[in-house]
Amino acid sequence: MKYISKIRPGIYRKYFSAMLAILLLAASAGSEAATVLLRRPIPLLPEAVARLNQVHAGKDPRMWQLVVFGFAHCKDVCPASLANLSMLVKAAAAEQIRLGGIFVTIDPDRDTDAALSQYTKAFGIDLGYLRLEGGELEQFKAAFSVETAFYTKNAGNMLNYQVDHSTTAFLIDPAGNIRVIFDALTDATDIEDLFRKNRTLFES
Q1: Which of 55, 117, 164, 167 could covalently link to 128 via disulfide, CB atoms 3.0 to 4.6 Å apart?
Q2: What ranges do the domains of the chain cover?
Q3: What is the pLDDT of residue 189?
Q4: What is 2-203's CATH number, 3.40.50.150, 1.20.1440.80, 3.40.30.10, 3.40.720.10?
């Protein structure tokens, strides 16, 4: 697990975007993924925090959030990512850490609320979903430096197209700060170890 610290406030957000770009490039090249624990949290914009909070509205305000992006028509990567998120929510509960999972769809044209509700419930009751559209979705993705690519989607094909996206996941504290960045497919065990070995992080 890597630790990032001592970043000047003025360049922090810029550094975050660059760091994510490096992680995504490494993943696409088949390099070993790295879980990044940020000693200095990255605060999300209030609009992004409000959107995340609405997913688990009415629940414990001290709850941490695990956020991953994907789409319900994904055949293998997204189901594996959500299975890991479900496992981590249970692992956190075993350590008495309040944690909820959030699946953010990058494909709202096909992912209806009904489809997303059914899709996420299949992985556990502590997993919720967030569906945004248009500019609102683009702004939310930008807050996490998430990029997507749509293939063969056009006026004549609005159903059977493919979407490429990263498997980067984010651990967010109750105040709306990104604390850990990891790969939802390959680094789940790192986060499970974090729950057991770094309890002070979740008490801060």
Answers
A1: 55
A2: 2-203
A3: 94
A4: 3.40.30.10
